[in-house]
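Researcher: We plan to redesign the surface later, but first we want a full-length starting point. Tokens attached.
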């Protein structure tokens, strides 16, 4: 679901103005220690993370599990909360002009059911990357900030 109904109602009231939104980000790792990253439809700034806005009445952990199921079709086991992040690096301007500042709960996870596949709606591609590959990979500003802060990324800052 690209825009949760709750956010759509807020957008109807405030237009494209900056919204502060709680979110969950998922870092799924496989047995070889590779990280799964995704490409989001309409985003051309590089690889990104599984995740999205927390819906009313939902915990951050529930949102993380739901987003993994929606975006890549898998069941995950959360292996730990890595950090809760916010600030200028976590502000996003979407191609259609909407602006959001996310405060994101970042979880490490393992896949326990299903085989990853892009949903074709939000996510159009995915890939598994080891730490060495991440350093040379074009990643979105948001993903880069999450991965750098959680110690997963040593690549360029820009």
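Model: Full-length starting sequence:
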């Amino acid at each position: 679901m690209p825009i949760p109904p709750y956010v759509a109602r807020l957008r109807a009231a405030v237009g494209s103005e900056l919204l502060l939104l709680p979110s969950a980000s998922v870092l799924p790792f496989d047995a070889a220690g590779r990280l799964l990253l995704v490409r989001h439809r309409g985003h051309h700034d590089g690889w990104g993370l599984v995740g999205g806005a927390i819906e009313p009445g939902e915990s951050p952990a529930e949102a993380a599990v739901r987003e993994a199921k929606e975006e890549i079709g898998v069941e995950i086991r959360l292996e730990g909360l890595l950090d809760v992040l916010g600030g200028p690096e976590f502000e996003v301007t979407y191609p259609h002009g909407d602006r959001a500042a996310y405060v994101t709960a970042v979880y490490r996870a393992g896949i326990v059911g299903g085989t990853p596949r892009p949903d074709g709606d939000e996510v159009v591609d995915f890939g598994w990357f080891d730490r060495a590959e991440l350093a040379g990979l074009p990643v979105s500003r948001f993903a880069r900030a999450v991965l750098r802060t959680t110690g997963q990324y040593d690549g360029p800052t820009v």
